[in-house]
Structure formats: C-alpha cells, structure tokens
Write a structure and sequence with these properties.
This protein is mostly beta strands. 0% of the residues lie in helices and 48% in strands. It starts with 13 loop residues before the first strand and ends with a strand.
Length: 46
C-alpha cells in the first residue's frame, strides 16, 4: 500500500488518516463500491 499525503511527510513524523476503500465486485458487475473504515490508518514517515 502506498500512502499519498497532501502535506510533506517528514522522517519520523506520525500520520493519521481516515480510511475509504473503493472497489469493484470480482466480475465488475458493480463498480465503485465504497467501504468506509471505522479505524484510522496510522503510521510513521520514513
């Protein structure tokens, strides 16, 4: 997974993002489904 941020990520800084995943069904019968996470994506810049 690659995280793209609007602000520069300074080495050692902590980030915290809300998660939204957009996906299609395996046979592409339904496209653009969204899954909204209830937990944040948290990490540290390298």
């Amino acid at each position: 997974m690659t995280v793209t941020a609007a602000l520069p990520c300074v080495s050692g800084a902590i980030y915290d993002y809300n998660v939204t995943i957009t996906y299609n069904t395996p046979n592409n019968a339904i496209t653009g489904l969204k899954e909204y996470g209830t937990k944040n994506l948290i990490g540290k810049c390298t």
